[in-house]
Structure formats: C-alpha cells, structure tokens
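I am writing to request your help with a piece of structural work I have in hand. Here, with my thanks, is the record as I have it:
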Amino acid sequence: MDRVIEKKTWTRKRILTIAGIAAIIILIAGSIFFTSGKSKLNVDTERVTISEVKKGPFQDIIPVNGIVLPVTTIYLDAVEGGRVEEKFVEDGTVVKKGQPILRLSNTDLELSLVNQQTSVYNLLTQMQIARNAAQQNTTTKLNQMTDVDNTLKEAERVYKLNKYLYDQKAIGLQEFKQAENNYNYQVAKKKLTEQILKQDASSTAQQVSQAKQSYMGSQNALNVMRKKVGDLIVRSPIDGQLTSLDAEIGQNKNKGERLGQIDVLSGFKVRVDVDEHYISRVFTGLMGETSFAGKSYRLKITKVYTQVNNGRFQVDMVFIDGIPEGIRRGQTMQIRLALSDEIQALLLAKGGFYQQTGGNWVFKVASDGKTAYKVDVQLGRQNPDYYEVLSGLQPGDKVITSSYENYGDIQELVLKK
C-alpha cells in the first residue's frame, strides 16, 4: 500500500537563496549607512600649516620685478650715413658734451660740399663784377649830370644876357628867342638826366639787394652742407656714459640708424613690468618698496606706459628717499607695489590651499584642535603675505593653509600629533 510523502517547506536550495538575498540587503544597507556620514582622513599635524585668522593692517600689494635704468637716456643716431672710419672711444666710456665718438666718411656729401663751395665763389665773383659795372655806370651818369649842369648854367647866363640886351633894343628878337629856347632845352635835359640818374640808382640798389639775397641763400646752403659733412663726426650731445655702442671700423651705417646711447649719470629709475590684469588700477603716484643691501627704499610711479605686450605693461618708478648706493644699470629689483591705502581688515595667511579651493572654502580647525572641517568662505584682495577675509571666518579662528592636494573629497580631517 502506497504512503503519501509530505513535501518539505524549507529546502536547502531555498534556504541558501534567502540567505543570499539577505546578505545583499545587509551589504547595501551597510554601504548606505557608512557613506551617508562624513568621510574622514587622519592627518599628522606636523605635516600641515595651521594659521590663525586675525585683524590687522592690510594693503593690496603685488610683487613686481623691475630693471634699473638711468633716469635719462639719449640715443645716438646717424644723422648722415657713411662708412665707419675711426672710433675715438669704446663702449662704457664716460664722455663729455661735444666729445667725438666716431667718424664716418661719405664721398657723396664731401663732393656736394666742394660743388656748393664752388657755386658760392662763382656767385661772389659775379656779384663783384656786377657791382663794378654798376659803379662805372653810375660814374658815367654823374659825369653826364655834371656836363648838363655846366651847359645849363651857360645857357642860363646867355639867356639872361640876351634878355637884357633885347630889352635895351640892342639885339633882335630872333637872337633872343634862340637863347631862350636853348635855356629851356637845357632845363628839361637836366630834369630828364636827374630822373634817369634816380632810376639808375634804384635799379642798381635792387640788383645789389637781389644779388645779396642770392649770395646769402647760397651761403646758407653752404653752411648746411658744411654741417652735414660735420655731422659725419658723431659727438656726444651731453655728459654721460656711452653704452650699447654698435659700430665697427669698416661698417656702413645708414642715415637714422641707431649707433648707441648716452646714459645720464645724475640718477636712476626702475622700469617695472606689471600684469595687464592691474592696468586699470595702476596710475602715477602709487608707492612701492624694495630692499637693497639690507635697507628698505621707497619708490613712486612717475610714468605709466599703457601699451600691453605679452600680457604685461610697464611703468617707471623713481627713488624718493635717496638712491641706493652701489646699484648699477641693468640690475633686477623686486618691488612690493601698493595698489591701495592701508586699512584694517580680517587677515588669513597665504598658503597652498588656494590652488585647490580658489578661496571658496577652507578646513577650519575645531575648538578642541582635534579635527578640521570644511567651511565656506569669501576672500577678497591679497598681498604677498595675506588674503583679505570678507566672510566665513572670525578673528581667532584657526585654518589649515597648507596644500589640500592629497585630500580629494574628504569632508573632515582628524588631526593626530
């Protein structure tokens, strides 16, 4: 007789399946539990920098580099082109005003000078010939005037005599009229001669004046040509030090080509490169500070060059407390340029944290000093030492200011000694 076998409810397979599902649920729940809290990282306090937030004086200062230059530089250009024939001094020599530096040769200019001199001498000779001719002509006219005067006097004497005789009935009318006509003719001739003499004098004076002006023009042209030839000897325009002399014997230099420069040794300035980001905030009168040979010196911006090259523009600064002893042209100086006046502000020391956070958050140390946690902050201006804290921190707060590069998405640091 057959017996009914009861089917088991908890088989081995079913138990294993339920256990697997439960394990998965526990794993998921544990993951959610552990990830829902803050991620932590143990950090050795000796490997981080902790800075205290404090209130103090703040200036918006940027570090810049400058090159020492003479306060005045005069450039030497070739006024006339030519071949370098002789150098009288070498680069670096201290020269006096008017001292020859080098000599150029230019045969075209020298030939033009000779031609101009010949032209002036020829013109001078022609003027002398014309003047002699004018004098002879005047002499002739004066002799003619003397003859006219003499003839007039004789005609006047005969006229007066014949008039007396005619009145006395001693001579006839025909003889009297002849003397009268001759007298009137001589009077008219004298007037004409005087007029001709006056016109001749005026014409002669005009010719002399024109010849004189022509001669003066030629003489001025000759002087200009002499100066052009004289400019072939390059001379120092001022007292100073000759630098950057670029000329060698046998070289050909074109008109206007740069030959060198003269540095005035009465003082120095500093030519500073500034990032174009600050171009709207930099103006004349801003102050800076530098150190040289263990002493601090103040400088002031006197000129701003607004042209931007390679993301930077330049300014000139001068020393206002005396020039540092021993500085030389071409030296590089590090300057702290102040972009604002000094104010009282909340300060946080600069550090590597800014590269990872952009100044938007920091790790603030808890009051017990055992942990540090993220807090949002707002930082404003900066100088080489401090950031200006606008919000998120208070005086006395302590902040980790060293680099956060290895912290990733860690939310809390556990500080271990």
The two ends are 83 Å apart (CA to CA). Residues 78 and 256 are 5 Å apart (CA to CA). The chain has four domains: 39-58+343-416, 62-71+267-338, 73-106+232-261, 108-230. The helical segments are 12-35, 107-167, 173-230, 353-357.
